[in-house]
């Protein structure tokens, strides 16, 4: 309906990627009577899985937990390629009617809460001008990184370099690496995916230039246990067992790594060493200075990275970039790496809630230093939820739980005749960093991040089993949320 010259909706979702499609599908299931729309800044849906087009783009979490709980991933592949994941997301959107609710080329720039009317006024930029909508509930599902501008350090000597310099976030459609020498700068999940894929694409040789090593584990791309379960059991039961097997393994591995980091280091190192040539300098290139899960582990399907190293197609160099030269990259130690193409797989920068400016009654709100409630709302901000996934497990596990909780909150508001809910700040709660996780993109943004508390429900736990209990079963009226 239209009120005061602008369209009004019960729920407004920002972002049509994995989180936004899941949120819309859960609303369609649990609250079919509610009106909602999904505002997407880009011209297509899919978020990350449409944006990234670099060779080999794939999941870095198993698909049995990365698939939605309400719509199982029906493929045997545990680590799937980007196009398959994108098709899965868009099929989900069609199945639950979310595709009909998405409004493309709507970049949300601001949202203001009106306490008197108990609603949000949301401003979005479109190709045809500025659009204003109002909504009772606002739900940010735009992830946590900047889609427009990746993190790319400026290298010295770029003006002298005769080759091509690219970033994976904006991979050129016309780039053919056949017969070329390629240097990939970086050692995160993107680099681990790109390096063997560039070899498969015909590159003459690929060098992974990393400033410091990363923990790397080889996993089978097709889970043999899942394959057996699917042959012998009904589909629903085999999917449930596959999902909980993946959850159990991930939770156990994380807990062991955090409690006994020395043991985890030895296990990981042994696995890496077993797949590399005898005498390979494992500790130079694959032994990080930090403990497992201080930063996210990287998984390589079927050990493809190690296979490429064994075959001589890939070199790993642990050093810094001193400067680009006409022919390639000069490292800090003075070695020159010849490169027709330099790929800057240097990560991304954070952008919370899609970069929208939040305010209440026209007074600007800052998320910096603001305490988070159950890692899905912010203290003092009414009828506003956000979805951020786990750092130690599949993003979707948390996205599903946030969607379940928001649907329960909306049901509670209906049942009690209330219009809004807000987490009340508690000055007695101590502050802690928002993430107990320190990759580069977090360290670069510490002065911009909210905080978590030192106790429930302000504490952010990276534990799916714990969150299943609290987000699905704990009463909505928990003494911390205030209703009106």
From TrEMBL:
This is Flavin-containing monooxygenase. Belongs to the FAD-binding monooxygenase family. It is an enzyme of class 1 (oxidoreductase). The lineage of its organism: Bacteria, Bacillati, Actinomycetota, Actinomycetes, Propionibacteriales. Gene3D superfamilies: FAD/NAD(P)-binding domain (3.50.50.60). Pfam families: FMO-like (PF00743), NAD_binding_8 (PF13450). GO terms for molecular function: monooxygenase activity. Coiled coil: none annotated. Its cofactor is FAD. Keywords: FAD, Flavoprotein, Monooxygenase, Oxidoreductase. The keyword Transport does not apply. Its EC number is 1.14.13.-.
């Amino acid at each position: 309906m239209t009120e005061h010259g602008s369209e009004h909706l019960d729920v407004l979702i920002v972002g049509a990627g994995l989180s936004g499609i899941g949120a819309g599908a859960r609303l369609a299931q649990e609250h079919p009577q509610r009106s909602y729309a999904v505002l997407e800044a880009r011209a297509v849906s899919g978020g990350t899985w449409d944006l990234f087009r670099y060779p080999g783009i794939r999941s870095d979490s198993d698909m049995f937990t990365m698939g939605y709980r309400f719509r199982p991933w029906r493929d045997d592949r545990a680590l799937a390629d980007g196009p398959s994941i994108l098709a899965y997301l868009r099929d989900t959107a069609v199945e639950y009617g979310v595709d009909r609710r998405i409004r493309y080329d709507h970049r949300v720039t601001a949202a203001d809460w009106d306490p008197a009317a108990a609603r949000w006024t949301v401003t979005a930029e479109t190709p045809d001008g500025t659009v204003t909508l109002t909504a009772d509930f606002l739900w940010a599902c735009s992830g946590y990184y900047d889609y427009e501008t990746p993190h790319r350090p400026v290298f010295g000597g770029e003006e002298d370099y005769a080759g091509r310099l690219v970033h994976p976030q904006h991979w050129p459609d016309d780039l053919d690496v056949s017969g070329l020498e390629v240097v990939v700068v970086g050692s995160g999940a993107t680099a681990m995916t790109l390096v063997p894929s560039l070899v498969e694409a015909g590159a003459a040789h690929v060098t992974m230039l990393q400033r410091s090593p990363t923990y790397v584990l080889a996993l089978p791309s097709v889970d043999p246990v899942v394959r057996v379960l699917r042959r012998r059991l009904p589909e629903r039961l085999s999917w449930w067992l596959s999902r909980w097997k993946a959850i159990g393994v991930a939770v156990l591995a994380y807990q062991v790594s955090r409690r006994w980091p020395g043991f985890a280091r030895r296990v990981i190192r042994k696995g890496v060493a077993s797949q590399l040539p005898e005498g390979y300098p494992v500790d130079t290139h694959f032994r990080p200075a930090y403990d497992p899960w201080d930063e996210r582990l990287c998984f390589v399907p079927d050990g493809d990275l190690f296979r490429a190293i064994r075959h001589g197609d890939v070199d790993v160099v642990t050093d810094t970039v001193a400067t680009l030269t006409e022919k390639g990259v000069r490292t800090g130690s003075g070695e020159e790496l010849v490169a027709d193409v330099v790929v800057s797989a240097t990560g991304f920068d954070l952008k919370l809630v899609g970069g929208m400016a939040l305010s209440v009654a026209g007074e600007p709100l800052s998320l910096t230093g603001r305490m988070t409630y159950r890692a899905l709302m912010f203290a003092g901000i009414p009828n506003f939820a956000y979805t951020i996934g786990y750092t130690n497990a599949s993003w979707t596990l948390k996205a599903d739980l946030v969607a379940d909780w928001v649907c329960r909150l909306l049901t509670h508001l209906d049942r009690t005749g209330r219009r809004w809910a807000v987490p009340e700040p508690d000055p007695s709660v101590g502050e802690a960093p928002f993430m107990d996780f320190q990759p580069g993109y977090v360290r670069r943004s510490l002065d911009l991040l909210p905080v978590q508390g030192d106790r429930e429900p302000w504490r952010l736990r990276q534990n799916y089993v714990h969150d299943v209990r609290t987000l699905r079963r704990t009463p909505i009226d928990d003494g911390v949320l205030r209703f009106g």
